[in-house]
Amino acid sequence: MHLNKISLRGFRNYVNLELDFAPGVNLIVGDNAQGKTNLLEAISYLGSGKSFRAQKTGEMVGFGAEFADLEGEIFAQERNQSVRWVLFPGKPRLLYRNGARKKSAADVAGLLPAVLFCPEDLMVLKAGAAQRRRFGDHALCALRPNYDAALAEYNRILEQKTRILKDKEENIAVLAILPEYNARLCQVGALLISYRARFYDSLGKAAARYHGQFSGGLEDFSLQYKTVSTVTDPFAPIEILRKQLEEHLESHYRAELSSLQCLTGPHKDDFDVTLNGISLKAYGSQGQTRTAAISLKLAQRELMAREWGEEPILLLDDVLSELDAKRQDFVLNQIDKGQVFITCCEPGRFTKLGKTIEIKEGQLKE
Questions:
Q1: Which neighbouring-strand residues pair with 222?
Q2: Tell me: the pLDDT tens digits for 146-168?
Q3: Do 168 and 256 have their domain in common?
Q4: d(CA 341, CA 27)
Q5: Are residues 274 and 357 in the same domain?
Q6: What are phi and psi of 211, to 5 degrees?
Q7: Helix (H) or strand (E) holding 364
Q8: 319: domain range?
Q9: Can you give the pLDDT at residue 349?
C-alpha cells in the first residue's frame, strides 16, 4: 500500500499543487513555515478524515478560498484507487472513493492508514492526561471505526449533560432528565473502556518489544491503563462495566451538582508507563521518555499493519532533529518497509534515504 500522487487545491497554503511520490522514503525539505507539515496533514487526512492539528474543517481551507480539495491516487488492496475530500468552512464535507460519493470516513477505513510522529509526541508521556487520551483515541479511531462512532456519541452526551448541569442554576427542573443522560453515558462509556483495555494491552506488549531492543534489554517497559476506580476489570463484559460506571457516577452525584461539571467517566481516563517498575511520568529522564514515545509509535504502526494486512504510511514531522544520533539511527532502521514521509529543514542531511521533495511557499521548488 502506498500513495502514488496527491493533488491539493485551496488547502492551507497550497493554492494548487500536484506531487508524485516514491513507494519508499520521501524526504520533504524546506525552511520553516513553507508548508511541510501542511503536506503531511493532507496525506494523513486522505485516509482518516481527521486532522492532527485542526479543530474545525474550515481551518484547513486556505485564506481567501471557498473550499479545499484534496485528492490522492493510492495503490491499495492490490489495485489503484482514488480518494477525494472537498472541505467547506461551516458546511458538511464531501467524500469520494473511486469517483463514487461516500457518506463518512468509515467508507475509506484501511485504504490509506497512517501513523504520524511529531516533536510533541516525544513528550506525551510527561504531558497531561488529556494529551495521552488524544494519542490513544486517535490511534484507536484509525483501527476501529466503531470506536470512532462510539467516542463521538459519548462526547455528544457528555456535552449535553454538562449543559444540563449548568442550566440547573436557572431552571432546577432540567435535572429531571439527568438520569437519562447518565444512563446513556454509562452505556457508551462501558464500550469505550472495553475497546481501550484491549488496545492498550496490545499496544503495551508491542511497545515493550521495541523498547527492549532500544535499551538493549536493560529496561522492562510496561503500560498500565487507568480508568474509574469502580471498574475492577476493564476486560469484563460490557454490562458489568456499565453497572460499575453507574456506581461511580452515583457516588459523585452531589459533587457534580455542586461543581456544575461531569467529574467521572472515561473522559478522565489515562495510562502510565513504567520502566523497571518506576513511573516514567514522575521519574523518567528525557532520554527514557523519548525512547518510550518512539516505542509507542512504532507499536501503533505494528498494530495497524496487523489489522489491515499492509504496512501503514509513516509520517515523521521534523522529529529526527529532536533526537540524538542513537535514537535517529533506531528510528531510521525501522523505515526499511512501507512508505515513509520525513520532513526536515536541512536539504543535505538525509538525502540518501530516497526521493527528495523541496517545498517553498506552498509550491514545489524546481
A1: 274
A2: 999 999 999 999 999 999 999 98
A3: yes
A4: 6
A5: no
A6: -65, -35
A7: strand 363-364
A8: 1-113+310-366
A9: 63
